[in-house]
From TrEMBL:
<dbReference type="Pfam" id="PF13692">
    <property type="entry name" value="Glyco_trans_1_4"/>
</dbReference>
<dbReference type="Pfam" id="PF00535">
    <property type="entry name" value="Glycos_transf_2"/>
</dbReference>
<dbReference type="InterPro" id="IPR029044">
    <property type="entry name" value="Nucleotide-diphossugar_trans"/>
</dbReference>
<keyword id="KW-0808">Transferase</keyword>
<dbReference type="InterPro" id="IPR050834">
    <property type="entry name" value="Glycosyltransf_2"/>
</dbReference>
<protein>
    <submittedName>
        <fullName>Glycosyl transferase family 1</fullName>
    </submittedName>
</protein>
<feature type="domain" description="Glycosyltransferase 2-like">
    <location>
        <begin position="16"/>
        <end position="129"/>
    </location>
</feature>
<dbReference type="InterPro" id="IPR001173">
    <property type="entry name" value="Glyco_trans_2-like"/>
</dbReference>
<dbReference type="GO" id="GO:0016740">
    <property type="term" value="F:transferase activity"/>
</dbReference>
Length: 847
């Protein structure tokens, strides 16, 4: 070899790695196709003889190496599979040619055209550093055909199917970053795994047009064997890449690569994943052009899968009520059975927020119309009547002003006309290389369904600076438990969390106070809270009857899967899904407020049922020390128990507090004792004990009863019942009016009303049950009456009230003690402890 030849032979920009096993004759065609390259970058060929049983393989490989010394190198090793063979080639090439800039993988039975290496090397050279590999189209031989892989690299597509063959040119920096084939993979999908490893390391691919790669296709092959075992192989692939298949990662990719919604208003249109975040619209015509182009090439181009036509102010009204994300997620679910879904907004006449099925949707009156993209295209091509005839509907009731009914249908009809024009403008293309990839607008749905069994995912854009937590509860009526959720959520928001209220058992709820929750998710038409005892009971307590494999469970899992954490309170549906969410990486907590027993002493209520699901929870959060001890005694590990101290349910105005304290002393003597019952008119709060107490204190005590029944039928009471109040000023006015807060409850946690009343100098007189003694020190800042029969409790409370009515000195001493104790607790402190515990629970789970 002369000096020039030796110099050329010593250079190597590209190393072509060819594993050889079982293809001794076809291998020669592969090598020959590499040697016939036109104007290639300096390259070398590394043949990895992978323990092939055919003697001809060794003979053929050595013959080629002797014919091209220095250009072709043969490595021999025991059979380890194609992944191990490629890794051996990579290690050898990086050491043998330190200046090698890229690696090309070629299977022994395939071929490349004469310009592949030059085109691939030039494309990789000018590509940005995050492009780790370039990949070609497929032109088939043996069994003829062609496949297109055109378009930008779409990771969501790549999570659903392998869009790249191993015949790719890989940047040296990518393998130096630790990206390698998995030697343990011998049954298939080793190429797919390799590309997902690269994506996990931050690299992306780039399509190489007109490459000239030719792929041998046969009815029986390793690929065919892998597809026969596709389900098991895909599950194993997902398990090796949990970060890529995590719900929040899927949503991140959806926001970047395939926004789910196209929202069209009279002001214009915008494509987005998260409709809860306001965005500036562009001209709607551009969105319709995008829809037309994606319809012609769905595997290469993206357009939103759903188009939302909204009358003026409708999106803002739903967003203001917190319902927008959840409503559109449910509309998406309904669109699987019909091409169109209406969303009609109504003003709330009772202050409640609701999202319910609309069994007779009127598309002309709806303020929002959600249409599947394919149905809109069909309407543009065939006329709207056949394409949009079938429909589903949702009705939302929201406080405050509601946009004028109608308006959305007009926008949809205009869109059909605009889309007809956009389709007509498309150039006619002769497609000889078809695209069989999953459409880009369906990729997120497919990967979530196959990998997570959860869809629709709540359409929320992930914020790396904030964590998301869902509070799952069957009802929301602003009682004591709900007020605890509101306070904890508001305090967590102050610490940077995004908070979401998920109501699983009611379609209408009290409007949450502003500042507590970023969104409100409801389940219209669901029956997810079904539960029962008998054969399904655990230690006598009811358990969930929500099947794990039902459509309801999958839909609810999709709404909760994007969360960092979920706090379940009294929700059987939350119990049923806690294990699945935990396996997805969501940190799960169960909120416990009080341990109950039924009329016959049977265990009922959340703590008893929660014990059946303790394995699925990272934390059991109790709101009293008494309940924490109960959990420990029931077998819950101490490390999983977090006792939070309740605090008042709202921030009091210092001026009102000071005025109440001054008036408290001035009001001693000269009038009857004022007693207040404030709470739900349900069995727990024991309002049925009030008539006997009121009768026994008649003439000495002035009474007010404030509340409403939520869970049980209200008892007959001797006084008119005032409606419940939730505004701080109204609550402070009640506490300031009353001398005594009367709580004849049968069971309790640590009531917020006690802490709020004490702050205003109102004396709590309560049954000594549950965690009440943690908020009241008997004889110092309140009075505790021993629990017993209804008659015993009523008589005991009546005696206490009569004593306070007669003795101003005792009353003033107790009021002073209450004022000293009230307001010493803060939700900010408890929220900080909860945040820390959630992070600690993650460490405990994975160590």
């Amino acid at each position: 070899m002369d000096a020039l030849a030796h110099s050329v032979a010593s250079e190597c920009d590209v190393n072509v790695i060819i594993p050889l096993y079982g293809q001794p004759s076809l291998f020669s065609e592969a090598v020959a196709s590499v040697l016939r390259q036109v104007d290639p970058p300096p390259f070398r060929i590394t043949v990895v003889l992978d323990g092939c049983v055919h003697r001809q393989s060794l003979a053929s490989a050595t013959a080629w190496a002797r014919a091209h010394p220095g250009r072709i190198v043969v490595l021999a090793q025991a059979n380890g599979g194609v992944a191990a063979a490629r890794n051996a080639g990579i290690r050898f090439a990086l050491k043998a040619w330190p200046a090698c800039r890229a690696l090309f993988f070629l299977d022994a039975d395939n071929r490349i055209g004469p310009h592949v290496l030059r085109r691939a090397f030039d494309a990789l050279t000018v590509a940005p550093p995050e492009v780790g590999w370039v990949y070609p189209d497929f032109d088939l031989f043996g069994m003829g055909g062609a496949w297109s892989t055109a378009g930008s690299h779409h990771l969501l597509q790549h999570l659903t199917e392998n869009v790249c063959d191993a015949a790719v040119l890989v940047r040296r920096e990518m393998v130096e970053a630790g990206v390698a084939f998995d030697d343990s993979l011998k049954a298939g999908y080793e190429d797919w795994d390799f590309f997902l490893r690269a994506a996990g390391a931050g690299f992306r691919g780039a399509h190489l047009p007109a490459a000239g790669f030719v792929y041998r296709r046969r009815p029986e092959s390793m690929l065919r064997d892998a597809r026969r075992s596709g389900g098991a192989l895909f599950s194993a692939l997902q398990a090796r890449h949990p970060g890529l298949y995590a719900p929040r990662r899927i949503l991140e990719l959806e926001a970047q690569e395939a926004p789910r919604f196209g929202i069209i208003t009279p002001a214009g249109g915008t494509a987005c994943l998260d409709p809860g975040v306001p965005s500036e619209p562009d001209a709607a015509a551009g969105l319709f052009d995008q829809v037309a182009q994606a319809q012609a090439a769905p595997g290469r181009l993206h357009a939103p899968a759903m188009l939302v036509f909204a009358a003026t102010g409708a999106v803002e009204a739903l967003r203001g009520a917190g319902l927008l994300r959840g409503a559109l997620a449910h509309a998406e679910r309904l669109l699987e059975a019909a091409p169109l879904c209406t969303l009609t907004l109504y003003p709330s006449i009772d202050g409640l927020v609701g999202l319910e099925p609309d069994i007779r949707p009127d598309v002309a009156a709806a303020q929002l119309v959600v249409v599947r993209r394919d149905a809109l295209v069909a309407a543009a091509r065939q006329g709207p009547a056949p394409a949009l005839l079938a429909r589903r509907g949702l009705a939302a009731s929201i406080p405050g002003p509601v946009p004028v009914p109608g308006g959305a249908l007009d926008l949809a009809e205009q869109a059909v006309s605009a889309l007809t024009d956009a389709l007509a403008r498309l150039p006619r293309e002769r497609i000889w290389r078809p695209d069989g990839r999953v459409p880009r607008d369906r990729a997120a749905r497919r990967v979530a369904r196959s990998a997570l069994r959860a869809w629709p995912l709540l359409p929320i854009r992930c914020d790396p600076a904030r964590r998301d937590i869902a509070f799952v509860t069957p009802v929301f009526g602003l009682g004591g438990v709900e007020r605890v959720l509101v306070c904890l959520a508001a305090a967590l928001r102050e610490r940077g969390w995004r908070t979401h209220l998920v109501v699983t058992g009611a379609e209408r709820v009290d409007a949450p106070p502003r500042g507590a929750f970023d969104s409100l998710v409801m389940l219209p038409g669901f029956d997810s809270e079904r539960h029962g005892g008998g054969r399904n009971a655990y230690a006598g307590a009811a358990t969930s009857l929500l099947g794990e494999d039902t459509e309801e469970a999958d839909a609810l899992a999709g709404l909760l899967a994007p969360m960092h954490a979920v706090l379940t309170t009294h929700s059987f549906a939350g119990h049923a899904l806690a294990g699945r969410l935990r396996r997805m990486g969501v940190r799960t907590a169960c909120g416990l407020h009080l341990a109950e027993r039924g009329r016959f002493g049977e265990p009922i209520g959340n703590p008893h049922s929660a014990l059946a699901y303790e394995h699925a929870y990272d934390l059991l959060v109790t709101h009293s020390r008494q309940l924490a001890a109960w959990c420990a005694g029931a077998g819950v590990p101490q490390e999983k128990i977090l006792a939070l101290s309740n605090a008042p349910g709202y921030e009091a105005d210092p001026v009102r507090v000071a005025a109440a304290r001054v008036a408290r002393q001035a009001g001693l003597g000269g009038r009857a004792l004022r007693a207040l019952f404030l709470g739900r008119l349900d069995r727990q709060k024991a309002p049925d004990r009030l008539p006997a107490i009121i009768a026994a204190t008649q003439g000495m005590v002035e009474w007010r009863i404030v509340g409403r029944a939520v869970l049980d039928e209200p008892p007959v009471l001797p006084l008119p019942v005032e409606p419940p109040v939730s505004e701080p000023a109204a609550l402070d006015a009640l506490y300031a009016w009353a001398d005594v807060l009367v709580m004849p409850s049968r069971f309790e946690g640590v009531p917020l009303t006690v802490l709020e009343a004490q702050r205003m100098g109102c004396i709590p007189v309560a049954t000594d049950v549950g965690g009440v003694s943690e908020a009241v020190e008997n004889g110092r800042d309140g009075v505790l009456v021993p629990d017993g029969s209804d008659w015993e409790v009523a008589q005991g409370m009546a005696q206490v009230l009569l004593g306070l009515a007669r003795d101003d000195g005792v009353r003033w001493r107790l009021a002073q003690g209450a004022m000293q104790r009230g307001g010493t607790r803060r939700w900010e402190t408890e929220a900080a402890r909860f945040s820390v515990a959630l992070n600690v629970s993650e460490v405990l789970r994975f160590t």
